């Protein structure tokens, strides 16, 4: 099937002219298929469009019976056209009717055609339809012909992307590009957000598809590739990779792909077929995205993601745009969609315009999730292919409580979520009325409710929620959002601000909890097989005492004349805590010798999150002024269950007998020794779990700002003695890892306790 004189370049120019003509959508599509058939010397050219219900519909044809247009339909996976749509790959056959997937549609009259070539209509890796040419003869299509039809398909896909064909589709379904999409992810930050998509790293919209000068476009492509390679080399050699939010190994992978000959060859072939350099990159990128969307192997998906990121860099080079969105031009009701983000990047956006956050990566304990909760932004993580499924400006809904995302929702779905948002707002108003109500249970037990914080933006929540103080201030967030190590004076300034904002409320500062998944961008990372169990937190502080001493000195100076509470994370032995205490005493002595005012009262505590401390409770309670349970890590270490691994993270329940027995041990030893025991982990902010903790004897809980209201509403209605009796009775007989959740939930329901 040789192409007509002029080949694909002439066809592309003719298609550009047709796209500019003032005609209706159907007439334009009819002219396009006629032009493609003539140029490729094919007897048939047909366009099948994917509808919103997943059905492929014949929208235009040259050569088949015209009566079949908008009549012939097939499911994705049905027939040769459906096979191409499901696989997102070209299919060339010399005898289509002998293929096992062939599906005969009598109304089309295609039984006289044997040779078949079909290619998917792709945009951002999503299949929008299928473009087909057919011939009567039994013939083999060449690679050049397949390439030419793929290039042509890109132009047709752009027509689909404009929405011009929407009017030709059934009203109840529309076309696939605009179809509603539901995605289930992981809840990161509570709340419901309705708004419109803003891509954190916006895709380049290629408007100039057809090349005027092939040689010039090849030179542009080669020059951009060279610039990307050079920029990656410079980042690696400079050691400044983390400033750009990437680790060295990621850039090493980028460098490898930037020299991949197969990838480069495909882009050059696309240019040779008549596309501009940026259109060629987009076409190859779309093919790779289509493979990525259908890939189940996690390693291959990651590699395809890397290639996608590299293509984005190349596109931005070609069009001369920065690889970031324009933060100052953020629209109203913006919902950010990103593959991943660092906490500093989120803080750069105008909070007043943000309504939600959707991430392809990032779990509930990631620092971006912590920052989102601090800002009160509904957020959902681990949403597969979110950046490929959305277009800038798309309507989108984020349900941060359920971990659900609705892309381009139907009006009834949008109305339901709008009502949910209104109900939540009314509930928040009810919680606000409880702000000044004392946190005392029905049987007169006082429970202290405090906030978890880590940024200055968290601190206004103290007044808003009526919290008694800050039970956990994560000092590492200042280090993680900075581009360099904060100086001692910068640390002191932050801690002074925290004290000023807190007023007379107490603040418990946790020393640097870095390492593991919390890598400081300007520090060299250490390769470890299991970083969660490796060199992190107090272990780094004791091995690098200069780092810990500088922080302790900044805290002591900032607290001059007022009470100070410091706790150390990831303590596994009493000896580690004693060494940390000694370091604090030395810093106190140093400041006193130099005439600096000291805190009016200093209390040192331990974050209990390593199970080994459960067997040193007597000693640690005698040595520490207080202990605070970090239930997130304690639970993952107790059950050897990675909290970031979705396959096992929900397998073990914090209300199971083993976990409750461990918590009970801590409460009993703390009470016996007069050591204050608090809870600052996530479970303390869930009403049912908080009810159990209070029943076990804990009288101080620290949680996210959004949890204060629901937990207070719960405790105001509970009787501690009754809950305590229920738990202790159940723990006597519970075995085999049995969970007490059903019994506790039933108790709450029958006693009118809101959980």
Automatic annotation (TrEMBL):
<keyword id="KW-0598">Phosphotransferase system</keyword>
<dbReference type="InterPro" id="IPR008731">
    <property type="entry name" value="PTS_EIN"/>
</dbReference>
<dbReference type="InterPro" id="IPR006318">
    <property type="entry name" value="PTS_EI-like"/>
</dbReference>
<keyword id="KW-0963">Cytoplasm</keyword>
<dbReference type="Pfam" id="PF01590">
    <property type="entry name" value="GAF"/>
</dbReference>
<dbReference type="GO" id="GO:0008965">
    <property type="term" value="F:phosphoenolpyruvate-protein phosphotransferase activity"/>
</dbReference>
<dbReference type="InterPro" id="IPR029016">
    <property type="entry name" value="GAF-like_dom_sf"/>
</dbReference>
<dbReference type="Pfam" id="PF00391">
    <property type="entry name" value="PEP-utilizers"/>
</dbReference>
<keyword id="KW-0418">Kinase</keyword>
<dbReference type="InterPro" id="IPR050499">
    <property type="entry name" value="PEP-utilizing_PTS_enzyme"/>
</dbReference>
<dbReference type="InterPro" id="IPR040442">
    <property type="entry name" value="Pyrv_kinase-like_dom_sf"/>
</dbReference>
<keyword id="KW-0813">Transport</keyword>
<keyword id="KW-0762">Sugar transport</keyword>
<feature type="domain" description="GAF">
    <location>
        <begin position="24"/>
        <end position="170"/>
    </location>
</feature>
<dbReference type="Pfam" id="PF02896">
    <property type="entry name" value="PEP-utilizers_C"/>
</dbReference>
<dbReference type="InterPro" id="IPR036637">
    <property type="entry name" value="Phosphohistidine_dom_sf"/>
</dbReference>
<keyword id="KW-0479">Metal-binding</keyword>
<dbReference type="InterPro" id="IPR015813">
    <property type="entry name" value="Pyrv/PenolPyrv_kinase-like_dom"/>
</dbReference>
<dbReference type="InterPro" id="IPR023151">
    <property type="entry name" value="PEP_util_CS"/>
</dbReference>
<protein>
    <recommendedName>
        <fullName>phosphoenolpyruvate--protein phosphotransferase</fullName>
        <ecNumber>2.7.3.9</ecNumber>
    </recommendedName>
</protein>
<dbReference type="InterPro" id="IPR036618">
    <property type="entry name" value="PtsI_HPr-bd_sf"/>
</dbReference>
<comment type="similarity">
    <text>Belongs to the PEP-utilizing enzyme family.</text>
</comment>
<dbReference type="InterPro" id="IPR000121">
    <property type="entry name" value="PEP_util_C"/>
</dbReference>
<dbReference type="InterPro" id="IPR003018">
    <property type="entry name" value="GAF"/>
</dbReference>
<dbReference type="InterPro" id="IPR008279">
    <property type="entry name" value="PEP-util_enz_mobile_dom"/>
</dbReference>
<dbReference type="Pfam" id="PF05524">
    <property type="entry name" value="PEP-utilisers_N"/>
</dbReference>
<keyword id="KW-0808">Transferase</keyword>
<keyword id="KW-0460">Magnesium</keyword>
């Amino acid at each position: 099937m040789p192409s007509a004189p002029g080949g694909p370049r002439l066809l592309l120019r003719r298609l550009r002219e047709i796209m500019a003509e003032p005609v209706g959508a159907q007439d334009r599509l009819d002219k396009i298929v006629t032009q493609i058939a003539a140029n490729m010397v094919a007897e048939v050219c047909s366009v099948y469009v994917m509808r919103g219900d997943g059905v492929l519909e014949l929208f235009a044809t040259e050569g088949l019976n015209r009566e079949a247009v908008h009549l012939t339909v097939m499911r994705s996976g049905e027939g040769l056209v459906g096979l191409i749509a499901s696989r997102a790959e070209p299919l060339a056959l010399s005898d289509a009717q002998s293929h096992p997937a062939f599906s005969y549609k009598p109304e089309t009259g295609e039984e006289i055609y044997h040779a078949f070539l079909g290619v998917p209509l792709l945009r951002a890796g999503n299949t929008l339809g299928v473009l087909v040419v057919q011939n009567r003869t039994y013939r083999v299509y060449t690679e050049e012909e397949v390439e030419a039809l793929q290039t042509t398909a890109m132009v047709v896909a752009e027509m689909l992307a404009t929405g011009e064909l929407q009017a030709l589709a059934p009203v109840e379904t529309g076309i696939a590009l605009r179809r509603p999409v539901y995605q289930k992810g992981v809840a990161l930050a509570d709340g419901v957000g309705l708004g419109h998509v803003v891509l954190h790293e916006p895709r380049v919209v290629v408007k100039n598809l057809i090349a005027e000068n092939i040689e010039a476009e090849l030179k542009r492509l080669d020059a951009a590739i060279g610039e990307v390679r050079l920029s990656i080399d410079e980042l690696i050699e400079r050691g400044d990779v983390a400033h750009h939010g990437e680790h060295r190994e990621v850039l090493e992978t980028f460098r490898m792909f930037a020299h991949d000959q197969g990838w480069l060859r495909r882009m050059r072939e696309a240019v040779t077929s008549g596309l501009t350099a940026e259109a060629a990159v987009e076409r190859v990128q779309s093919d790779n995205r289509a493979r990525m969307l259908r890939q189940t192997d996690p390693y291959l998906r990651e590699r395809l993601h890397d290639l996608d990121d590299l293509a984005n860099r190349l596109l931005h080079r070609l069009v001369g745009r920065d690889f970031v969105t324009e933060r100052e031009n953020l629209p109203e009701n913006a919902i950010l969609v990103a593959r991943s983000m660092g906490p500093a990047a989120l803080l750069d956006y105008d909070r007043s315009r943000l309504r939600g956050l959707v991430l392809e990566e990032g779990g509930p304990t990631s620092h971006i999730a912590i920052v989102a909760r601090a800002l009160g932004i509904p957020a959902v993580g681990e949403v597969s292919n979110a950046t490929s499924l959305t277009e800038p400006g798309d309507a989108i809904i984020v349900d941060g409580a359920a971990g659900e995302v609705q892309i381009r929702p139907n009006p009834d779905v949008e109305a339901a979520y709008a009502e949910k948002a209104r109900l939540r707002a009314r509930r928040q108003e009810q919680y606000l009325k409880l702000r000044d109500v004392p946190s005392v249970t029905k049987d007169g037990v006082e429970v202290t409710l405090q906030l978890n914080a880590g940024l200055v933006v968290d601190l206004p929540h103290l007044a808003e929620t009526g919290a008694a103080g800050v039970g956990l201030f994560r000092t590492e967030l200042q280090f993680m959002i900075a581009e360099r190590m904060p100086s001692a004076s910068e640390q002191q300034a932050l801690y002074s601000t925290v004290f000023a904002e807190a007023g007379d409320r107490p603040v418990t500062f946790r020393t640097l909890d870095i390492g593991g998944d919390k890598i400081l961008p300007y520090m060299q990372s250490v390769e470890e097989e299991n970083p969660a169990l490796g060199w992190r937190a107090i272990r780094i502080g004791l091995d690098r005492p200069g780092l810990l001493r500088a922080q302790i000195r900044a805290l002591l100076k900032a607290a001059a004349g007022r009470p100070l509470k410091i706790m150390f994370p990831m303590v596994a032995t009493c000896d580690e805590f004693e060494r940390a205490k000694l370091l604090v005493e030395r810093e106190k002595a140093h400041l006193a010798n130099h005439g600096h005012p000291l805190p009016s009262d200093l209390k040192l505590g331990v974050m209990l999150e390593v199970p080994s401390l459960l067997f040193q409770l007597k000693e640690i309670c005698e040595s520490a002024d207080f202990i605070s349970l970090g239930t997130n890590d304690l639970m993952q270490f107790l059950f050897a269950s990675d909290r970031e691994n979705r396959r096992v993270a929900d397998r073990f329940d914090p209300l199971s007998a083993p976990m409750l027995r461990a918590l009970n041990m801590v409460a009993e030893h703390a009470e016996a020794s007069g050591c204050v025991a608090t809870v600052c982990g996530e479970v303390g902010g869930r009403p049912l779990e908080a009810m159990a903790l209070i029943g076990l004897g804990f009288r101080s809980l620290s949680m996210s700002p959004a949890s204060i209201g629901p937990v207070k509403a719960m405790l105001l209605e509970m009787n501690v003695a009754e809950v305590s009796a229920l738990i202790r009775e159940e723990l006597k007989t519970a075995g085999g890892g049995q969970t007490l959740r059903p019994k506790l939930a039933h108790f709450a329901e029958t006693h009118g306790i809101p959980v």
